[in-house]
């Protein structure tokens, strides 16, 4: 196995002295913070459904509406190929990648809670603007505001959950973010299914209900405690220890608090955390956490299915209601998969989930590609049995993604960064994730039109590369205290040449 084993011995390793109990205070904090994932999930679910609704298309995209009506029951790879329509989806993610840098400053200097509150307000405003949109410009402005909210929420929430969680259950706790995301997608699909029958303003209700999770997140956020890590980083040592004692349910937190103080001391010497990410000693976190995993999470192709599930199923010849129903089935698979991952990821580890699920996803992509190559053609009515088979294969694909690259794409990067670069590193994670999310959202329908079934073979090939990356470069991080992750890289067959090098810059020296 590529990852080195972790032990408690050695200088600076105090994990064996950590104590904790699961308290009501801890559960409240994590559940409220995880609501940030519901913002991301609701938008993922609602946008694809709205872009397939006839009333929405007729008002804003009449050309697409006419093309859809002309081939309502027939297969057509290019039925929804319209760059302005895809910009409606992707503009949110372009906004999110820009806002995450502002979020990094707020998260580092004002705390994780402050970013959560800012994100909820921006998302609420975006939902209002979209619900009352009169033209495409208003739609895009609303999407940008939603994007700002997601940029702040996705930057802060995974950090918050990882810092609040005890090491032994950090995987399950962090995946509350993914669970909230998946529930948001599922609820959005049910809402789309219902509002599709409300003419002509049902789509406005779908978009406007984004204000509901944003309101819950804001009100809950007012009562959230700041993380002990953030309080110590801000120099509030007494308050940090007090919060640590409350979330751990014990007064015996000397060892863990000492680790937090040591990490904070190192963090205070770093004036430019983004530059510090480029240092040789931080190469593993940069390559794996900030660049590799967040990019690969999108290149699996799963979010293309989540964005455009109703659109894809309608392109395959399903009716409007059947398409929304089929996409609800796939989003339900995500919820089931996340619960499986939460239950087992701290037992079997991150690497096992990444690798096993990748094999399933490759097989599913190839199966879809072969089926479409044999059975799919423009103007062809897809046989019912083939349609059911495609829904089942996509369900299995989403089930595999939902217990691996989906939740672990947020969990693993949030574990890897030391405190001095944690907020900057998480900003890079969100930025890279949103760049690839936006590109996939903008390009998928055009790629489906031009590459046809080959798009699924492309995703299968990319997953082979991703699995290889994980096998050779990611050490196992399960149950390792977050402030001691760096010891894994010092013992890793490949990364130790970087993190243990004597020719690194001197402490505090800038690039």
From TrEMBL:
Residues 29-478 form the Major facilitator superfamily (MFS) profile domain. It is found in: Membrane. One of its GO terms (cellular component) is membrane. It comes from Rhododendron griersonianum. The chain crosses the membrane at residues 22-42, 84-102, 114-133, 139-161, 173-191, 203-224, 323-345, 352-374, 386-406, 427-447, 453-474. Gene3D superfamilies: MFS general substrate transporter like domains (1.20.1250.20). Keywords: Membrane, Sugar transport, Symport, Transmembrane, Transmembrane helix, Transport. NCBIfam families: SP. It is a multi-pass membrane protein. Belongs to the major facilitator superfamily. Phosphate:H(+) symporter (TC 2.A.1.9) family. Belongs to the major facilitator superfamily. Sugar transporter (TC 2.A.1.1) family. This is Major facilitator superfamily (MFS) profile domain-containing protein. It comes from the Eukaryota. GO terms for molecular function: monosaccharide transmembrane transporter activity; symporter activity. Pfam families: Sugar_tr.
């Amino acid at each position: 196995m590529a990852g080195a084993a972790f032990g408690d011995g050695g200088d600076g390793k105090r994990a064996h002295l950590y104590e904790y109990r699961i308290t009501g205070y801890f559960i409240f904090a994590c559940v409220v913070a995880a609501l940030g994932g519901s913002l991301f999930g609701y938008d993922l679910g609602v946008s694809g459904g709205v872009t397939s609704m006839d009333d929405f298309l007729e008002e804003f995209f009449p050309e697409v509406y006419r093309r859809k009506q002309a081939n309502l029951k027939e297969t057509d790879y290019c039925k929804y190929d319209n760059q302005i329509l895809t910009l409606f989806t992707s503009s949110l993610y372009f906004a999110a990648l820009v806002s995450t840098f502002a979020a990094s400053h707020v998260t580092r200097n004002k705390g994780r809670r402050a970013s959560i509150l800012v994100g909820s307000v921006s998302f609420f405003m975006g939902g209002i603007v979209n619900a009352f949109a009169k033209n495409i410009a208003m739609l895009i402005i609303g999407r940008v505001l939603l994007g700002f909210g997601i940029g702040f929420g996705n930057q802060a929430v995974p950090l918050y959950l990882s810092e609040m969680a005890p090491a032994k259950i950090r995987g399950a706790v962090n995946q509350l973010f993914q669970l909230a995301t998946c529930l948001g997608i599922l609820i959005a699909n049910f809402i789309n299914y219902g509002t599709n029958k409300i003419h002509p303003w049902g789509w406005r209700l779908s978009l406007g209900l984004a204000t509901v999770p944003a309101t819950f997140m804001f009100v809950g956020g007012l009562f959230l405690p700041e993380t002990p890590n953030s309080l110590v980083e801000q120099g509030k040592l007494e308050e940090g220890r007090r919060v640590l004692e409350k979330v751990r349910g014990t007064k015996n937190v000397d060892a863990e608090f000492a680790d937090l103080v040591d990490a904070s001391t190192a963090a205070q010497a770093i004036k430019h955390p983004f530059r510090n990410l480029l240092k040789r000693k931080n190469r593993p976190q940069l390559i794996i956490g900030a660049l590799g995993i967040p990019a690969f999470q999108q290149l699996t192709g799963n979010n293309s299915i989540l964005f455009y599930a109703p659109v894809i199923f309608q392109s395959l010849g399903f009716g409007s209601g059947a398409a929304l129903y089929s996409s609800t089935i796939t989003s339900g698979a995500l919820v089931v998969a996340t619960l499986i991952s939460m239950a087992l990821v701290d037992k079997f580890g991150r690497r096992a989930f990444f690798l096993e699920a990748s094999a399933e996803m490759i097989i599913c992509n190839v199966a879809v590609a072969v089926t479409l190559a044999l059975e799919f053609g423009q103007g062809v009515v897809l046989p019912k049995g083939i349609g059911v088979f495609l829904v089942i294969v996509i369900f299995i694909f989403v089930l595999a993604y939902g217990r691996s690259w989906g939740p672990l794409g947020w969990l693993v990067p949030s574990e890897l960064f030391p405190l001095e670069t944690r907020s900057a590193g998480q900003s890079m994670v969100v930025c890279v994730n949103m760049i690839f999310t936006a590109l996939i959202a903008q390009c998928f329908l055009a790629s489906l039109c031009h590459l046809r079934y080959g798009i699924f073979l492309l995703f299968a090939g990319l997953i082979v590369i991703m699995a290889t990356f994980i096998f050779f470069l990611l050490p196992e991080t399960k149950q390792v205290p977050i402030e001691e992750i760096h010891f894994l890289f010092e013992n890793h067959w490949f990364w130790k040449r970087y993190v243990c090098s004597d020719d690194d810059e001197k402490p505090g020296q800038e690039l």
